[in-house]
Design brief:
Distance between the termini: 44 Å
Low-confidence stretches: none
Helix content: under 10%
Strand order of the largest sheet: 2-1-5-4-3
Largest sheet: 5 strands, mixed
Radius of gyration: 17 Å
Structural class: mainly beta
Order of helices and strands: EEEEEHEE
Number of strands: 7
Strand content: over 45%
């Protein structure tokens, strides 16, 4: 039995159901997928360029998919600007407050 694929709109649970984008698939294979979004594309977040928010799709509601934040990631270029010469490793953990919730980058 063949299942037909469609485009599904993905909405964020954490940001008052704003639309994050669209994914192609069927209702059984889109659950659990990750979606990378630049933080600058979300209007309620004012951040420096170079941060990505990774969402994971949790549930399907008809043609609408709901996603939650899984992690925040700093881009490689942004990290390279922070590294000092002749140092082998740099670990930086920065708390970021997004709409009353604390996340660590």
């Amino acid at each position: 039995m063949r299942v037909e694929n469609n485009w599904f709109d993905v909405f964020s649970i954490d940001f008052d159901n704003i639309k994050l984008g669209s994914v192609f698939g069927n209702s059984s294979n889109v659950i659990g997928r990750k979606l990378d979004i630049d933080a600058n594309e979300i209007k309620s977040i004012k951040s420096k360029p170079g941060y990505k928010i990774i969402f994971r799709i949790e549930s399907a509601d008809g043609e609408k998919l709901n996603a939650r934040i899984e992690s925040l990631v700093m881009s490689r270029e942004q990290i390279s600007r922070m590294v000092r010469h002749n140092i082998s490793k740099l670990d930086v953990v920065t708390p970021v407050n997004i709409e009353g919730k604390d996340y660590f980058v």
